[in-house]
Specification:
- By secondary structure, this protein is α+β, with helices and mostly antiparallel strands.
- 32% of the residues lie in helices and 20% in strands.
- InterPro entries: Alkaline_phosphatase_core_sf, DUF229.
- This is DUF229 domain containing.
- Keywords: Membrane, Transmembrane, Transmembrane helix.
- It comes from Brachionus plicatilis (Marine rotifer).
Length: 682
């Protein structure tokens, strides 16, 4: 037995011994011993999870893939990667810096709390932390909201409608909503010593529903035609969706060992091994998940265009699932933590009206505007902690509401995961703790990511990295009452099938459908996409049986994102022999193709030059094959991927040319999102 395992077994024995001692000691001793037990158990959990991730025998290497007609997937994928571990190790100093900066003044979080119509401040604690006399502290609370102006982009302005001054340690506000609280030192020219954005919920959450009925905004298109659920038949099962940007299924295991271990042991929870992206970025994947629709600017193989539901380029009329849940008596919530690159706002206009009962964008715009201190922190605690608090506050308000309703809550985390490889690891323990405190008895919990990491040093340097780009994480925990139904049995079998965001969309639809018809065998209702008349029949609910040999075509996964394709790598010489074209000719064609995108903007955008070839891959698609070419252009170290097909001694472009590397602020001089990938401004 290795030394590490001896320590591990020793710790388990220590827990048992301390438990025995604790039983026979006075109460105050038992409390201290129980704390010790918790600390040891926490360490054991961490160590056990770490063993699970790093044990070479725990996971199998990726097997060979068949062609697109049959998708034969390996039982597991390999979380181990020497390159990944190298970058995780190199980032440890950065991780420690972020962690240290976020816990330096963590007591600031105890300064303020809000409950129902009260906002309460601990002036004594604030005085101690800010080294300011209590008599010199002056605090005000400002209520703000979204500006309803369809001529502007979604919520780049705010309206201050109420101002409250703290004469005591608490104020009672007359209106629920978002409040900005700021405290200043009157003896130092009213310099800021503390500020925070808080949410005040009504004591009766049905108030949100009534207000929305008075000011409903535009009529929402409905292509789903889900039936209205009568109050007498509704089973009041909630939906809680927690999403993360840029974390593959493998990387989730690497950076969240504690959380992954918890999910693996969570009763009625299932982790999907072959969940696949539909697009390269967040928007097409979340769009498919929430509406069943396709953005044809990113997927030209499927022709249902999101644009037919837009109005003045806003998304208000798009038939998102939260509208169907709302029509059936649910209180709805939507929040994401990074407003600059939000799903429906990045290079888009967003919503003219709040899409859900609680819409978090006003909160986060103000939060980032006022945030001070180290990066990713605000007054001593990390940004993701505020994101967790937003969810917890909403769930607590729903639980304590005088009128009981079910909820649909969609939450998306970006800042800690989007541009970083190892930084998300700092939130592992807190994520595990947050999940463990949820009351999930009557709740469908969906924990997912949109796609894998796209940082070029990893995603394009190894075969595993390329695979992970399109292999996001998915975990679903079903409500307790569904555990002995065929729906749960089917879902369990589907964990090893090829599934996509269209399947997740159909699952969320069927979950609402089951709220009407029931989940017990006595009310067992067959559900298919065709059982509800609409035009979004792509995908199969995960509550239903999915074919074991399902292909990417059957799952509506684009060919260039399919994990089941056979391919092999070529060098320039092999490529020339197969196609009859010298690669120098192809380089020029690729260069002219990219530069043609901005040919009419040459006064603004520089002309690219070919820098280097990264990879040529021949990919076999049914009855044809294509060549996937990855190359780098300058200036800007711009990585691109173009697919070419050769027929009758001619070549043609297959699909779109994709930019693989981030362009950051390089295309600052152009506004058209379709051109930003191809422009480096003068």
């Amino acid at each position: 037995m290795r030394l590490e395992y001896k320590y591990f077994v020793g710790l388990i024995m220590t827990i048992g011994l301390v438990n025995i001692i604790a039983v026979h000691r006075p109460k105050h001793i038992r409390v201290k011993l129980n704390k010790l037990i918790y600390i040891i158990e926490d360490f054991v959990d961490h160590y056990r999870a770490k063993l699970r991730v790093l044990d070479d025998n725990e996971f199998l290497e990726l097997g060979s893939k068949s062609n697109n007609s049959k998708c034969l997937l390996a039982d597991h994928v390999n979380t181990r990667s020497k390159l990944a571990e190298q970058y995780l190790d190199s980032d440890r100093q950065l991780l420690q810096k972020i962690f240290d900066s976020c816990v330096t003044n963590s007591s600031f979080k105890k300064v303020i709390k809000s409950e129902k119509n009260l906002i309460e401040l601990n002036f004594d604690l604030l005085s101690e932390l800010s080294e300011t006399k209590v008599s010199d502290i002056k605090c005000n609370a400002y209520r703000f909201d979204k500006k309803m102006d369809v001529s502007e982009e979604d919520q780049q302005t705010e309206i201050v409608s109420h101002v409250y001054s703290f004469s005591t340690n608490q104020i009672q506000v007359t209106t629920h909503g978002f409040y900005y609280v700021i405290c200043q030192n009157a003896a130092q020219k009213f310099s800021k010593i503390f500020d925070q954005v808080v949410t005040v919920y009504p004591s009766d959450m049905s108030v949100l529903v009534e207000e929305r009925q008075k000011f409903p905004g535009p009529n929402h298109s409905s292509v789903h035609h889900l039936p209205y659920l009568s109050e007498s038949k509704a089973t009041k099962m909630n939906v809680l969706i927690i999403g993360m940007d840029s974390v593959s299924a493998n990387h989730f295991r690497r950076i969240f060992p504690l959380t992954f271990h918890y999910l693996s042991q969570l009763e009625h929870n299932l982790i999907f091994n072959h969940f696949n992206s539909l697009g390269r970025n967040t928007f097409p994947n979340v769009l498919a998940m929430l509406s069943g629709l396709v953005d044809t600017s990113t997927n030209d193989q499927l022709k249902q265009d999101i644009n037919e539901y837009k109005e003045n380029n806003f998304f208000d009329r798009v038939p998102f699932l939260w509208h169907d849940y709302e029509k059936n008596g649910y209180v709805t919530m939507f929040q994401e933590d990074d407003p600059d690159i939000a799903i429906f706002n990045y290079l888009k206009k967003g919503f003219a009206h709040s899409p859900t009962h609680l819409y978090g964008r006003p909160f986060w715009l103000k939060y980032y505007e006022s945030r001070s201190g180290p990066d990713k922190c605000h007054f001593g605690y990390p940004t993701y902690s505020t994101w967790f608090d937003m969810i917890s506050g909403f769930l607590a308000a729903m639980k304590n509401s005088s009128t009981k309703s079910a909820y649909f809550s969609f939450n998306f985390l970006t800042e800690y995961t989007h541009n970083y490889f190892a930084v998300p690891a700092t939130m592992d323990r807190d994520l595990r703790t947050f999940l463990s405190r949820l009351d999930l008895d009557d709740t469908l919990l969906v924990l997912f990511s949109d796609h894998g990491n796209r940082l070029k040093f990893y995603s394009y340097a190894t075969e595993l990295g390329k695979f992970e780009k399109h292999s996001p994480f998915l975990s679903i925990r079903v409500p307790t009452k569904m555990r002995r139904t065929r729906y749960f049995d089917n879902m369990k079998q589907n964990t090893n099938k090829l599934v996509s965001f269209f399947d997740l969309f159909q699952t969320l639809r069927q979950f609402l459908f089951l709220n009407k018809h029931g989940t017990t065998s006595g009310h067992d209702q067959e559900f298919t996409a065709n059982s509800i008349e609409d035009r979004t029949r792509r995908g199969t609910s995960l509550f239903e049986k999915i074919a074991k040999d399902r292909s990417c075509d059957q799952a509506y996964i684009p060919a260039d994102l399919c994990p089941c394709l056979r391919s092999h790598e070529l060098n320039e010489s092999n490529f020339s022999s197969e196609t009859g074209f010298g690669f120098e000719v192809v380089k020029q064609v690729l260069l002219e193709h990219v530069n043609s995108k901005t040919s009419e903007l040459r006064s603004k955008c520089k002309e690219f030059k070919f820098h280097k070839l990264v990879q040529i891959k021949k990919v076999y698609l049914k009855e044809k094959s294509i060549y996937r070419i990855v190359y780098v252009l300058q200036p800007g170290d711009a990585w691109f991927e173009t697919k070419l097909r050769f027929r009758n001694k001619k070549f043609e472009f297959s699909g779109q040319t994709i930019r693989l590397s981030a362009y950051n602020d390089q295309p600052y001089c152009v506004n058209d999102p379709k051109l930003k990938d191809f422009c480096f401004c003068h």
